[in-house]
Every structure is written in C-alpha cells, then in structure tokens.
Amino acid sequence: MKAQLDPQLNTAPNDIRDIRHIHIMGICGTGMAAIAGMLKESGYKVTGSDQNVYPPMSDFLAQAGIEVMQGYVPENLDPRPDLVIVGNVIQAVFPEAQRLAELGIPYLSMPQALGHFFLGGEHPKKPLVVTGTHGKTTTSSLLATALHRAGCSPGFLIGGIVEAFGRNYRLGEGEYFVVEGDEYDTAFFNKVSKFLHYRPQYAILTSVEFDHADIFADLEEIKQSFLAFVGLIPENGALVACTDDPVVAEIAAQCSGPVISYGTGKTGKDCQWQLCELAVQGCSTSFTAYKDKVLFGEFTLPMPGRHNGLNALAVIALMDHLGIEQEAIAKGLASFEGIKRRQQIRGEVNGITVIDDFAHHPTAVRETVQALRLAWPDQRLLIVFEPRTNSSRRAVFQQQYEQAFAGADQVLVREIVPLTNVPAQEQFSSQQLAVGLNAQGIPTEYFPDTAKIIASLVQQARTGDVIAILSNGGFDNIHERLLGCLHESSGE
Fold first, then answer.
1. Could you say which DSSP state residue 190 is in?
2. Element at 192 (helix H, strand E)
3. pLDDT band at residue 329 using 50, 70 and 90 as cut-offs
4. Going by C-beta distance under 8 Å and a sequence separation of 6 or more, which residues neighbour residue 484?
5. Which pLDDT tens digit goes with each residue over 330-363?
6. Which domains does the chain have, with CATH numbers?
7. Comparing C-alpha atoms, which of 319, 303, 316 is closest to residue 273?
8. What is the maximal distance between C-alpha atoms in the chain?
9. Which of the pair, 380 or 123, is modelled with greater confidence?
10. What angle do CA 199, 200, 206 make, to 5 degrees?
11. Looking at residue 437, what DSSP letter applies?
C-alpha cells in the first residue's frame, strides 16, 4: 500500500526556531530556487532535489552553497530535515514523496512556505500581490523596481529575472513585499491557486481570461479562484483593478476592501485612473495619467505597447495610494531596465534584430505583436511562435490564435509536441493556423522542428528585419542558435 501524506503535517512547527534544515523537492523550478535562496540568506541549511539539474539554475544554487541531489530517491531525506517544501512538479508516487510520508516530516508547498516565512511571522510584511491572466511578471517587476528606486527597499518574488537586480527575488528591508500571484494550483496535496496563500493586503488585478486548460474546466472556474483571492483583501488594503476588462470589473465588485479602478476608459466605464495620450517611439512609450479626471502626470516607460502602458498605470495607482510622490514614481518607471524574456533584445547581426518574448496566450500574442509593430513601424516583422503550454497545445484557442498575429509580415510556427493524454482532434493544429493566417494575407509556414525554422530564417532574413520569438519555454535554445547561424552566414 502506498504511503499517504498526513494532512496534519502540512504545516511548519509553531516555533520557527525549531527549524534548522529545510529540504526542497523540485528545487530547480524558478520559484522554488528563489525560495531556496531566500531561506539560505535567512540563515537556514537548505538542500534540494530535482530530476532536471542543469544550468543556469544549477549554477545559481551551487553559488548559493545549496546542495542539490539528482532524482527523487528516498535517500535524499537522509539526514532527516526539519521541514520539507514540496514543489508542484512532485507527484505522490515519487519515491522521495513516499519516503516523506513514511517519515512523518512536516511539509509545506512553496506558496505556503512563502506565506509562513516571509509574509507572516513575528515581523510580517505588507504583501503587494500582482495577479491576472496577463502582465503579472512585467507589472510586478515594474512595481518592485519603482519601489526600490523610491527608497522603499521592497522584498519580492517574481516569475522572471528583474534586470535591475539580476535575480527574481529579494528579501528587502522595507515594509512591502511584491509577489507575482499565480492562479495555477499549489501542489498535489493542495489543489488551490497559489495566490490564495499570499495574504494580500494590496493587490493589482490586470485581466481575467480562460487559461490553464489542464486544471480549469472553463472561465467560470477561474473566476471562482479570483473571487476567493479578492475576498482575502482586508478593509485596510486595496485592490487596483483594470475595469476595461468586464470580468475584472465583475470580480472587483465583490471585493470587501477599497477598489481603485484603472484603464483607458474606452469601454464606457468610468475609471478612477485613466491612460491617455499614449505614444510609442521605438522601444519607448509615453503617456499621461489622469486621476479622477485631473491630470496626475506625464510618464515615460522604456517598453513599447499599450498593454505596458496599462501595466505601468496600475503601478502608478498603487504607489500613489501608498503615499509615494509622483516624481519618484515617474523616475522609477523611466529607469526600468526590463525583465528577461519580455520583449528582450537578444542580439543584432548585420542589422537583423532578434527578440525574445514569453507570449503564449492568444491575447498576449496579439498585444506583443501590436507593440512590436508600433516599435518598428517601417521594418519587416517576422514572428516565430512555439505553442508549448498545455493550453496552447489544445484546440480550445485555435480560432483565437488565428486573430492574434495582425501586424506581422510573416509568421513561422512550430509543430506542437503532442499531448499524450488528449485526443488528437482536441489538440492544436499548427498546420490549421498556417492555413488561417495565409487566408488573411499573412504569409505563414509551419515547421516540424526548430532546426528547420532556423534554416528558413537564415535563408530569408535581411538587414532591417525584426525577428520576434514567442514561447514560454527554452525553444531548443533557438535564440542563441539563430544568432550564431546569422553570424556565420554574414561572415562576421
């Protein structure tokens, strides 16, 4: 009979001083490695295990002095740790999880650990949780950077590398802690959204759409998670909500704490904060922000796109609510260095620019393509798309993707890696996407593998082209491989 984890042990000891050694299962995930680093910096002995121990995460953990074991074997729990943090990649049948159950060691999920060690305790922080289907990483990175530049010394845990800090986490010395709040579930023993563990006092809600088709049946299920989240915001907190989105407006109406609305105001809804006079020049966006129909200030953001203007407006609204001066907010946004994998220029060869972006949901793809079109209005824009997430490899978004690439001069799409547990007729078709886009007059090809995409780009790319690669994964290291091949072909 398989051992079962005791739910009563899903807790940390009451006295945090009893904990000296913390072991982390699935330590090489972005959030898990960040928690490992935070715990190590807080004085704990930290060890970990993972099936995929390789750079750059393995290098980061080694530099932090954290021992990492390869594979999920029972021996990883010898010597016996005081607490185990279990990542959401871990399954109950893994030998190490079985041994954890047999030994009866207290255990937590990563979100529970974040709440216990860094958001609560004897010296609780004020959590600023940024959530929504889109823009979480960008908005939380903007917020953390601008708070830092304003002298607030925030802590943060974010799902991307924030260039201002060269990492995705920071303990911080100030009263605020910025968290990217993910609606994905927590762990095999705790099937609720991660953000329900983050104790939000203040929150930003950017958007709510159907996503994560592997764990949510429909939009209604996702709405229920977000409703539970906003229900956690206290009366002495605030929810900053983009009411351009009707689903966000519906959810925000159920918040018991104060609601600060923001948006363009073009949906017919009055927003307390309004984005106006937006202009994009190259990779820079300028706009004016109005508060209660009165000009609050003019702002510049070193990122292109209306969606990034809205992300910045949310940060402005929250920082103003926290009592930070307009001039300090403006300086923080203007000096933002960006985030890795968000409209990040990876290199330029012979006048050909290669850009990396995380976009994978149809709405994110559409906004990214439009932003790049505004940034490079007179140059040929080639979009490379890899459907890689569980949702993007399902047919559920087939038609929406066919409306997401307007503004591209050419699209190259990779064939999906099939989902083993989903019928073929319910999976996304790259070939059908190509047919649909070609019918709209957007030249599109689909390719069986990454090597053929690189070969096609090298053959046809010319000086002045912008090649944007959209994927939420490593995409077979396409960026470096493409830049290398372009160098070879140009003779540089």
1. E
2. strand 190-193
3. very high
4. none
5. 999 999 886 666 778 888 888 899 988 877 788 8
6. 7-110 (3.40.50.720), 125-334 (3.40.1190.10), 344-490 (3.90.190.20)
7. 316
8. 67
9. 380
10. 140
11. H
